[in-house]
Structures are given as structure tokens and as C-alpha cells.
Amino acid sequence: KSYGSVLFDQVRIYSMDQATYASYIESNRANKNAMSVSLKSTVSTEQFENGKFENDTLTGWTGLTNNGSSLVNSNNYYGLINFSNTNYEDYKLPTALSDANLYNNTKALLINNQESASVGYKSSTIAIKQHQTYKISFYAYASISSGSAVAKLVEVNPFSEENSNYAKTYSLEITNSSSDAYTNGWKLYSFYIQGRSFEDTNVFLELWLGEEEKAVGYIAIDDVVVSKVTSNEYNSTSSSKNGVQCNFGASNEATIK
Length: 257
Description:
Radius of gyration: 20 Å
Shape: globular
Strand content: 35-45%
Number of helices: 2
Largest sheet: 12 strands, mixed
Distance between the termini: 65 Å
């Protein structure tokens, strides 16, 4: 409940060209009273369970380990971080961590290897419809002193086990935080997806800190969102450090059994 009053006046809608819009966004990045809203992307009905990590538990996410690591380690922390808790030592963090300046955002996933380890989390599975184009995006904050972090988009094998080499996996390296004041150093990463031509398929995310080799440091993940994009938007994107095209309909060099 709230008490008091608020007055609004001179509510106006302006049209602006792309250059003016870009200049406005750049000059207002650190302004809490301004917000950029994109109407180009439509949120898909297919979403990963608890993709925004706002539940009180990590429902929808399964812990993963490699290289003899364990999810139980008194020197490390694996789980949710609550941004309202200012005692960062509860999460084994060396300093406080701010959120990515997202609306109504209170929690995120934290993988914190103060002692070297290989730990990750696997999402629930979503369907990618044939011929459809999507974008899976998420924010990440990273401070890694050794090793590396990676996000993997993994396809569930749509064929028989004998043809398992036809299932595809795409990867994005998660790198150390940026100097962007608007997002408090968080970076936005995106998988741009083209569905298969002849059938639907299913995919899930894996988020790793030290998958192949152990790593030291921490990564925080937040706001995992699946959006529908047009084929023109998909085709106009190019693979970069923070984004990758994922064409599940492209042929593989393999022998049909």
C-alpha cells in the first residue's frame, strides 16, 4: 500500500530519428528516471523455467560439475544472490555486487569459485519450432582470474541415438565485466536461433565457470529471456563476442547410419 499523492502533467509522445534516439540513450545510460523499451522483439510463450531467478529456490535449474568438483564446498558459493542483502561475504564475494538495472529485479544466479572448480547449471528444456527464428538472451557479470566461463545452447538429439552427431551445440564465452554504468557492468549475451526445416526440436542452456578446466572467480547470470525475432533480424545479426547465430537446420558433415 502507498499513501500520498502524485501529479502528472505535459505527458507527450515524440517521434525521433535513429541518430537522435541513439544519442538520447547514450546520454541517459546512468539516469534512473529514463528507460529504453524495444517493441521489435516479442517475448515467446516458450520460456525457461525460473529464467529470471526470482523464485526463492533454483527451481528449474540443475547443478553440474566436472573435473572432480563438488557443489558442496565451504570456500565457494553456488546458488541465488539476493541484491537486497548487502552482506556480500554471505556469498563469498570480495565486494558487493549490484544488479543489472533491470525492472523489478531482486535475485540472480551466482557461481562463485574462490577455490578452483568446474561448476555449472543446466536449465529446463524449451521447444524450437520448425522454420521459426528466436533470440535467447541473458545478462552476465563476471570476474574471472583464471580459467574461463561459457554459456552453451545444447540441442536435445532429435533423431535416433545412432545419429546423435546431428544434435548441435553452440557456445558463447562469458568475459569479465564491462564499464557500462547503465547496467552496473553487466553484459548482455544472445543466441540468435533458426529452427530446423522439417521438425521441431528442443534445447537447453548450460552455464559454466570452468567447464573443461577448473576456473577461479565468479559469474552471475540474470534475466534469461526467449524472444521471437523476424527472419530479417536473424539474418542481419553476425556472430560476435556477445552473440552467435545458431542454425539448427544447417547440415552437418556426417554419415547417415
